């Protein structure tokens, strides 16, 4: 449905130029979303797929094991959209006591993303509402170190920003002037907690994501926080007990269409086209996450059976294999600690896994060796190649 422009333009000064900055109308859209036909069917499919994903705890022996790796996979993908080149292996290496040799700036951004998500989820679990204060806190975590740390982490911007182009005058999009940021974000917070609208949480998340990206309330990190907002909304709204739905891979794969639809919402009010795209992404992503979980369960079962068939010493090898499930990239010292065995035993049993083709040593060194559970990491890495 076309509603014409969904906001107003206001003059703003940026980089010595006067530009037309876009101030979005408050949510929900007027007239309301047309949920007939294809859009209603898309909503039902996405809701069913999300329900299956929420039930993943029944499938996995240890849901936290999946969550640990999946959150980090999302951090890599979301940061890649912003131009970082870090891989999941880079992040896991960095987390091994911040090992040298890993590209620092890129991997710090990814590590910050993990910290931001964990902070937001912990606050929600403690009963704190999803509000602008929480978004500012989460942004402070996101921008705590590395690039962007000097761009007012945790504070709404007080200067004009722009998206695309070489300067404000030829930018692809200019968000609201600084004076409009607080009112716009207050209206967004009000929409998130508006019980009278009675919108399904998936639709609320779809609308809130666009509104946040349009306001672009921070000097940096808006894209990553806008994607985090989806996970936080679905958790607070009761759709997911754990933050297991991440649309970064879907947005990455359909990047041009994503930006085209954001623009069409602003210029012509076509919320329905955006929402259908969003719901298709939820359905595809949730279904893929369930399939990934099943593949990992099958992998773990098959490798455990191979180890058990080895006979003598299998108990310690199984302990090391379990440690690699918890941390698919690990040093021998960490593995020994995780498995509750001595360092010599961890060394011997890890080499058994190497001989079986389950584990692989990464460094080529004799000391401070790092081992990776290749098949596990390969499953998680699918689609995670740098742009």
From TrEMBL:
Protein name: Fic family protein
Keyword Nucleotide-binding listed: yes
Pfam families (alphabetical): Fic, Fic_N
Keywords for this protein: ATP-binding, Nucleotide-binding
Domain of life: Bacteria
Gene3D superfamilies: Fido-like domain
Active site, UniProt feature: 216
Ranges where the Fido domain occurs: 130-280
GO molecular function: ATP binding
UniProt keyword annotation of S-adenosyl-L-methionine present: no
List of residues binding ATP: 82, 216, 220-227, 258-259
């Amino acid at each position: 449905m076309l509603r014409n422009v969904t906001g107003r333009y206001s003059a703003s000064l940026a980089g010595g130029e006067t530009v037309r900055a876009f101030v979005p109308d408050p949510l929900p859209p007027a007239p309301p979303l047309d949920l007939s036909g294809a859009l209603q069917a898309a909503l039902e499919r996405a809701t069913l797929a999300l329900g299956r994903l929420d039930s993943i705890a029944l499938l996995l022996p240890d849901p936290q094991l999946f969550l640990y790796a999946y959150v980090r996979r999302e951090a890599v993908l979301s940061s890649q959209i912003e131009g970082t080149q870090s891989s999941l292996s880079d992040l896991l290496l960095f987390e091994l006591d911040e090992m040298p040799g890993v590209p620092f700036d890129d991997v710090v951004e990814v590590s910050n993303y993990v910290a931001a998500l964990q902070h937001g989820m912990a606050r929600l679990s403690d009963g704190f509402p999803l509000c602008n204060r929480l978004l500012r806190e989460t942004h402070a975590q996101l921008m705590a170190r590395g690039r962007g740390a000097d761009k007012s982490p945790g504070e709404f911007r007080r200067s004009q920003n722009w998206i695309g182009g070489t300067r404000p005058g030829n930018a692809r999009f200019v968000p609201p002037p600084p004076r409009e940021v607080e009112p716009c974000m207050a209206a967004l917070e009000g929409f998130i907690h508006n019980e009278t609208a009675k919108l399904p949480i998936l639709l609320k998340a779809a609308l809130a994501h666009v509104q946040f990206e349009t306001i672009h309330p921070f000097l940096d990190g808006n894209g990553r926080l806008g994607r985090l907002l989806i996970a936080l909304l679905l958790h607070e709204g009761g759709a997911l007990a754990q933050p297991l739905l991440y649309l970064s891979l879907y947005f990455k794969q359909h990047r041009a269409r994503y930006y085209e639809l954001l623009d069409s919402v602003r210029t012509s009010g076509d919320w329905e086209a955006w929402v259908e795209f969003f719901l298709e992404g939820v359905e595809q992503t949730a279904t893929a996450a369930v399939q990934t979980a099943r593949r990992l369960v099958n992998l773990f079962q098959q490798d455990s059976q191979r180890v058990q068939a080895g006979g003598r010493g299998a108990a310690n090898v199984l302990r090391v294999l379990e440690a690699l499930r918890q941390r698919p990239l690990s040093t021998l010292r960490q593995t020994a600690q995780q498995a509750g065995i001595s360092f010599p035993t961890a060394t011997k049993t890890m080499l058994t896994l190497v001989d079986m083709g389950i584990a692989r040593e990464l460094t080529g060194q004799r000391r401070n060796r790092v081992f990776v559970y290749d098949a596990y990491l390969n499953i998680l890495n699918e689609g995670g190649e740098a742009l």
